[in-house]
Amino acid sequence: MASKPRKEMIAETRAKLIAAARRAFAEKGYAEASMDDFTAEAGLTRGALYHHFGDKKGLLQAVVTQIDGEMAERLNAISAKAPSRWQGFLDENIGYLEMALEPEIQRIVLRDGPAVLGDPSLWPETEGCVTTITASVERLKEDGVIQDVDAEAVARLICGASAYAASWIANSADPQATLKKAIPAFKALMEGLLQR
Hints:
Elements: H1 6-28, H2 35-42, H3 46-53, H4 56-80, H5 85-99, H6 103-117, H7 124-142, H8 151-171, H9 175-191
Helix pairs in contact: 1-2, 1-3, 1-4, 1-6, 3-4, 4-5, 4-6, 5-8, 5-9, 6-8, 7-8, 8-9
C-alpha cells in the first residue's frame, strides 16, 4: 500500500489537532483544556502540536479561524435566501447576533478568544468581515438603497456594533432575553443608513 503524500499527512494531522482542541475548548474552556488531552485524543504528540501551531494559543487561533469560516458560510446562506439585497444584508447581520446563543461560539469565539487572543477588532478574521461588509455597502449604495456614506467606515461601525452586541449576548445572565433587546436596537441602527 502506497503511503500518503506529505501534504495530505500534514493536513490530516492539523485537522485532527483542531478537531480535538475544538471539542476540549467547547467542553472545558481554554484554561481547563489540556494539551495532553487533545494530543492523546488525536493520537499525536505534543511535538506535533508545537510543530503545527506553536503552542496552545496558536491552536486556539486555528480553532477560532475554523469556526469563523463556518459562521461566514452560514451567514452567506442566510443572506442568499433573502428577497432583496437590503434584507439579505440585514438578515446576515442579525444572524451573527443570533449565533451568540450557540454554546460553542459563546465559549470559544466570544469569551475565550478575546481573553486569550486579544482585541477581536485586530483579528485577521475581522478584516475579512470588514472587506465583505464594505462590498455589500458599496452595492447597496449603487442600488440607491442606502445613503452616500463611506463604505469602509460603515463596515467598521457595523462590525464593531455587532461584535460588541454578540459579546454582550454571550456574556449576559440571560442571553435569550439580551438578544431580544439587541435585535430591534440593531435593526434601528442599520435602518438609519437607508435612503430617505
